């Protein structure tokens, strides 16, 4: 991987949060490379921070506006940001010409020295990601929160050590061209979404499946076998399976039964905590908790630490977030709910 980047001309495609993170990383580690950025926005429409950075590093070439894709042929390496589809004709042509097209996610997976816990699904991934992170933080692990609700992944790479853990929320856009799986993958329920980005439902499902298609027998996959789409993806995975369920006892896995969250690792179940002590509203959040329990259990976190972190957990902004009470009526902000 590193040899493919050394002394190459590099184009960062997309100047959002992740694109700027990639630019800063390459300025730190590959200052000798010819660097350029491209984005469909005109300079004056970029964020103030982005404008300032581009002015500071005048050696970075900029290609902005509607013709930003026409320069792909001039660069050896193209770093694609998640908002830009890997299926664009210009990118497909660049790959056929032998250009090295990669994403920040791919680069991070290749270079991160520790273990990666990746979480995907149509809904619930942010809450599950943060739950896993908080449990590991409670366990005093060296853990980083990266992805959509954490820092851009390359921002933490310089601080990472072999014992470090990265909890990574992964959208279908980040997964679409992934070529290496996480050590632990969590697939929550998947229903069709982003069909303005993908050609059809099957292409969307295939993108989601990349989180586990490249896992090996030493890795772990956590999912609910009662959901048809995750079950289909899991059938193509070589990873060890760990299950979650709200409706039936599963093993090895975590499940809800008679008002308790339990774990079954062998032939006997062990109670983790009463569901009434989970501070999150909604049955679906119990499933997110089960997923977090299994992911951290695989990493050796003890039950008392898991319970302590779960009890202290607060809803993320705009996700069944308690707003207040008026005349005996509780009001919740769930403005991010779309399905």
TrEMBL record:
ATP-binding recorded as keyword: yes
Residues of the Mur ligase central domain: 119-295
Residue intervals passing through the bilayer: none
Keyword annotations: ATP-binding, Ligase, Nucleotide-binding
Short name of any one Pfam family annotated for the protein: MurD-like_N
GO BP term, example: cell division
Keyword Nucleotide-binding part of the UniProt annotation: yes
One MF annotation (Gene Ontology) recorded for this entry: ATP binding
A Gene Ontology cellular-component term: cytoplasm
InterPro entries attached to this UniProt entry: Mur-like_cat_sf, Mur_ligase_cen, MurD
Lineage top rank: taxon: Bacteria
NCBIfam families, per database record: murD (TIGR01087)
Stated name of the protein: UDP-N-acetylmuramoylalanine--D-glutamate ligase
């Amino acid at each position: 991987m590193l040899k493919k980047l050394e002394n190459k001309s590099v184009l960062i495609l997309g100047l959002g949060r992740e694109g700027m993170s990639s630019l800063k990383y390459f300025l730190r580690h590959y200052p000798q490379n010819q660097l350029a950025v491209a984005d469909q926005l005109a300079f004056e429409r970029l964020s103030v921070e982005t404008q300032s950075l581009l002015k500071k590093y005048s050696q970075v070439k900029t290609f902005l506006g509607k013709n930003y894709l026409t320069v792909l042929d001039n660069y050896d390496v193209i770093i694609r940001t998640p908002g830009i589809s890997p299926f664009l004709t210009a990118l497909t042509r660049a790959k056929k010409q032998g250009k090295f097209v990669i994403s920040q996610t791919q680069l991070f997976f290749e270079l991160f020295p520790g273990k990666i816990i990746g979480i995907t699904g149509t809904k619930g991934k942010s809450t599950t990601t943060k739950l896993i992170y908080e449990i590991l933080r409670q366990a005093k692990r060296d853990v980083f929160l990266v992805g959509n609700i954490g820092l851009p992944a390359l921002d933490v790479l310089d601080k990472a050590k072999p014992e470090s853990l990265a909890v990574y929320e992964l959208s279908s856009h980040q997964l679409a061209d992934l070529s290496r799986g996480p050590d632990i993958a969590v697939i929550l329920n998947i229903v069709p979404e982003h069909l303005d980005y993908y050609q059809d439902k099957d292409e969307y499902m295939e993108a989601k499946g990349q989180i586990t298609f490249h896992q090996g027998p030493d890795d772990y996959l956590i999912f609910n076998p009662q959901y048809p789409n995750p079950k289909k993806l899991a059938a193509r995975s070589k990873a060890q399976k760990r299950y979650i369920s709200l409706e039936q006892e599963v093993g090895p896995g975590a499940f809800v039964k008679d008002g308790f969250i339990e774990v079954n690792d062998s032939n006997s179940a062990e109670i983790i905590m009463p569901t009434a002590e989970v501070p999150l509203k909604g049955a679906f959040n119990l499933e997110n908790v089960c997923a977090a329990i299994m992911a951290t259990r695989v990493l050796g976190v003890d039950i008392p630490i898991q319970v302590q972190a779960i009890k202290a957990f607060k809803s993320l902004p705009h996700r069944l977030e308690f707003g207040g009470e008026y005349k005996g009526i509780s009001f919740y902000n769930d403005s991010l709910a779309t399905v």
